[in-house]
Amino acid sequence: MRLFVAVVPPPVVVADLERALARHRDAAVRWTGSAQWHVTLCFLGEVAADSLDPLVAGLGAVAERTAPLRLALRGAGRFGDRVLWAGVAGETARLAVLAGAVREAAGAGADEHPFRPHLTLAYGRADLDPLVEALQALGSDAWQADEIVLFQSSPGPVYTPLRAWPLSG
């Protein structure tokens, strides 16, 4: 199974973001679906079924010792000429600590890239600078991230939540 762990913004933040992006939907990029929006904490890649129980136990322990976080969306940016994203603001230092704890709980095979909190908005091979500039004022009200979610990623992409844990530390 191809897995990742993420924080998901609440419906009100998703709806506000959909409205903010509506006037930009004619841009020559492939927009991600709002039902798939999330902030990835750690990409786990392919995980064998026999590794799932220890992973679930480890993620549960991380959630038990982590308090909810206040987050918001702020601005936009890009990764090269292929990925347009919304930035994440608020308790990002604590979010980075959470991402590190999730990576540690996942063990070998977890993505080793530096954590850069973002919400992917679109993909494309285009000049993304006009969109980045147009979306600099992008923002959301702060929300409480109060759970982590283990997702399975399938082609499409389709992200299926497998398990969620409340942040209760």
How is the topology of this model organized?
Layout: E1 2-7, H1 11-21, E2 30-31, E3 39-46, H2 52-64, E4 69-79, E5 83-90, H3 92-106, E6 118-123, H4 129-134, E7 143-145, E8 147-154, E9 158-166
Antiparallel strand pairs: 1-3, 1-8, 2-6, 4-5, 4-7, 5-6, 8-9
Helix pairs in contact: 2-3
Task: Describe the protein in words.
The structure is a single chain. The chain has 169 residues and is of the alpha+beta class. It is 27% helix and 36% strand. It has a single domain (2-166), classed as Cyclic phosphodiesterase (Cyclic Phosphodiesterase, Chain: A). The protein has helices spanning 11-21, 52-64, 92-106, 129-134; strands at residues 2-7, 30-31, 39-46, 69-79, 83-90, 118-123, 143-145, 147-154, 158-166. The strands form two sheets. It has a five-stranded antiparallel β-sheet. A four-stranded antiparallel β-sheet has the order 3-1-8-9. The longest helix is centred in the middle third of the chain and has 15 residues, at 92-106.
